[in-house]
Every structure is written in structure tokens, then in C-alpha cells.
Amino acid sequence: MLQRKTLGSCRDEAVAAVLAAGRRRPSVVPMAGQDPTLSTSHPFYDVARHGILQVAGDDRCGRRIVTFSCCRMPPSHELDHQRLLEYLKYMLDQYVENDYTIIYFHYGLNSRNKPSLGWLQSAYKEFDRKYKKNLKALYVVHPTSFIKVLWSLFKPLISHKFGKKVTYVNSLSELREHLKCEQLTVPPEVLRYDEKLQRLHEGRPPPSAKTPPPRPPLPTQQFGVSLQYLKDKNQGELIPPVLRFTVTYLREKGLRTEGLFRRSASVQTIREVQRLYNQGKPVNFDDYGDIHIPAVILKTFLRELPQPLLTFQAYEQILGITCVESSLRVARCRQILGSLPEHNYVVLRYLMGFLHAVSRESIFNKMNSSNLACVFGLNLIWPSQGASSLSALVPLNLFTELLIEYYENIFSAPEAPRGHGLAPREQGGRAAPLQEAVLQIQATALTKPSLPPSPLTAARRRF
Asked: Taking phi first (over 0 means left), then psi (-120 to 50 degrees means alpha), and beta for anything else, what does residue 151 get?
């Protein structure tokens, strides 16, 4: 008979396997740029401890950003470059199934730490089509003549299609024109070098002078404003219009689209749709002929909230989910959600209900709860300062996966958040505002034709 392991047990076994693979190293003082939560049992601890490679949130199109910082590379005699190559592949393997972006900080590469040309050539060959296909952009920050000469040497070996993905960026202000940099952790050495370059060009106005001062949001603004602002401007509606429109459209036309939420869309198109929404103009996604556009718009809306939907306050609690016994994790999720503001809880419940419906069609769309969690984890929660570390991705994605997989248990009415749950009916038989909102969402879901569970989901529920 088919047996299914629990979500937690699979991860626990994986962690146990890593721990059993070798002896624990003695504790050491963290190095500059090192993730303080990095365990000495990490399979690539000898390379990872330098902090050369980091994950820095998502870009404007929802693509995961991976940064490579040359200034954190130690002298060649202290770093096994073959191990560095293996570590690069190990890290990228977690993201290459989705579109992603690489930012290469060139400053700090010198004769003491740079790898040989032979190593660079073999590294390019190691990264086959699997790694190059979904790499949508490679930004080279602070390029030097060495980089440009190197590029001319390797140009005959590099495909034209890959070459078009490379963009030279001469300053961090120029990088901000391409990317949303709030979550980007830039090494202090790179920041100082960038300031030095700016001082060398004192004759020009500093790049920041070209940026106009912040203006009050438009009355119809939808992106980059708080949930409370959206509620106040939309007659008390708790579910933001952009979220409701995109979810409704995707429920009707996108549930069985393979790779839903994994693919990116045209930057110009996304900006155009955002502009229309912010100006209060109607958006008809049928006009664009691409089901991935509303999917990217949904992720962009979540990512541009001033505070994450799960709130900054819940960040540390969520990181502790991996320390909770597998059988108690669902209860812990409900406990954490109990501390959310009522508005955040209602919006989160609405979103998770939709993602749960997407996961039920995973036999068609290939997006089970685990895959969806990898996409949405960093769009729902991030730290108040800097970007999430690599080690934080596991608990953040696990927490998101639990919310999607066990949606019905976690968001069941009896377990609504304490202090702002389903309040008793007010005098005169009128429901409290939050109760009305939740009942309205439930009623909306009930009016939609119910889809039969996929064979995979049916098998899971039996076991």
C-alpha cells in the first residue's frame, strides 16, 4: 500500500542525513558577511562561511535575486575554487527551476583572490542549459577593463542569447534603475567604493538629485501603500482590489496553467498594468494574452506592501517553525497567525484559500504546495532590516507550505486569531465587521462551482 511521509518527517530526515555526513566543526567567530545562523554542519560550510553568495529577495518581476560578491573571496590559497564551483551549483539548483537574476559585484577581485582563466572556462561549461535557461539577467556592477577584456576573450565561447542577458552597471544608483534594491544586501566594501566613485565625479550632480522627493500617494493608488490605506480608499473593503481582481481572473482561467507563478513577464507590461491600477483605470487581462501577467501582478502587489502581509513582528516566530515537532507545526502556525492584525489575517486567509486551490490542480499546473511556497515565501514575510539570509529560506518556505497544504485546518473558524477573531454578533443581530468580511469571503467561495479534487490530492487525503 502507498505510504506518505509527513511534511515535517521528510525535512527531518534530510537534516539528519546532512548531520550524519560528517563531524561537527568546532564553533568559530562569524566572518564578515557571514550569516550568523549558518551551521557548521552545512555541507559547504568551508565556502558558505565567507558570505560570497547571498539570496537577496526578488526583483521587480518577481524573479529571485542571487548576489556574488568578489570582495568576500579570500586569497586563493585559502579557498578551494573547485569547492566554490560546487557550492555555486548547489545553491543555484534551488532556484533554476524558476526565473532568476544574478548580481555580480566585481569590486574586490584582485591578483590574490581571482581564479585562473582555465577555471572560468571550465565553470562556464559546467553551467549547462539547465542553469542558463531561466537566468533572465546578469548585472555586472562596477566593471573594470579586466572584465571587458575577459568578456572579449570568452565571447567566441558564449552564445549570443546568453550574451544579451549581461548588463554592465557602473554605479549602485544605476542598479536601482533596473532593480528594487530595498531587500538587496550590498557589502560595505562595495558601498564605500561606490561613494569613492561618486566623489571622483563631483562635477556632476549626484544621482540622488535626479530622484524627486516622495509624493503623497494618489487617491486611487494600489501599489506601495498599506492595507489600511487601501481599505480607507475602497469603502472599507478588506480585500485589496488588485488582489481580488487577479485572484478572480486566475481562478477562472489559470488554475491549470503549467508553471503558474514560476514565469516572469515583460517589465514594460507589468509597469503599464501597475500604472493603470494606480490611476484607477480598468485593466482587462484578456487584452494582454498572457496568463502569467496577472500572476506577476499579484506577486508584485504583495512584494511592494510597506510591511509584509505576515508583518515584521512575526518574522522571528516563523523562523522557529523548524524547531517545532512535526506533529505540532500546524497548531504552531495557528498560534502565530493569532497575533496578526485582523486585516492582515483576513487578506492572508483569502490568499491562502486561492493558493490551496492552485495546489489541488498540481497534477496539471505542476505547482504543489512546496513549489508555491518557494515562490511566495519571501513575498509574504521579510525582515525589517536587510534581506533574508540563505538559512532563513527553509523555515520561511516551510511555514508558507504549511499554510497552503493545511489551509482548511489552519484557517478553520474555531481557531480564528485571539483578540480579533470571529466576534460575537453585535446587538440587533448584526455581525462584527471581521465576521462579516470572513462570511462574505466564504459565501463568495461557495458560489463558485466546486472543482473535484485531483487524483494526487485524493490519494493524499486517503493516507
From this structure: alpha
pTM of the model: 0.58
Beta bridge partners of 168: 140
Whether 44 and 248 have beta carbons less than 8 Å apart is answered as no
Distance CA 208, CA 143 (A): 21
| Residue among 335, 263, 333 nearest 299 (CA) | 263
Report residue 405 as a C-alpha cell: 497544504
CA distance 345 to 356: 16
Cα gap 163→146, rounded to integer Å? 17
Is 351 within 8 Å of 403 (Cβ atoms)?
no
CB atoms within 10 A of CB 312: 13
**Segment 378-403, tens digit of pLDDT:** 899 988 877 777 778 889 999 999 99
SS3 100: strand
Q: What is the pLDDT of residue 345?
A: 96
pLDDT reported for residue 451: 40
pLDDT at 109: 87
Quote the crossing angle between the two packed helices 342-360 and 393-405, to the nearest 10°. 80
Question: Which pLDDT score, from 0 to 100, does residue 182 have?
Answer: 66
Question: In this structure, are strands 100-105 and 64-69 parallel, antiparallel, or unpaired?
Answer: parallel
Place of cell 533574508: 388
Convert 32-46 to b/e letters by CB count within 10 Å (16 or more is b): ebbbeebeeebeebb
> Do 210 and 313 meet the contact criterion of CB atoms below 8 Å apart?
no
Cβ neighbours for 143, distance < 8 A, ≥ 6 positions apart: 106, 168, 169, 170
What pLDDT does 416 receive? 46
Please report the pLDDT score of residue 258 as a whole number.
Answer: 93
Read off the DSSP letter of residue 452.
P
Query: What residues in the chain have per-residue pLDDT under 70?
Result: 1-37, 150-160, 180-183, 202-215, 413-463
Query: Which of 139, 203, 123 has its CA nearest to residue 176?
Result: 139
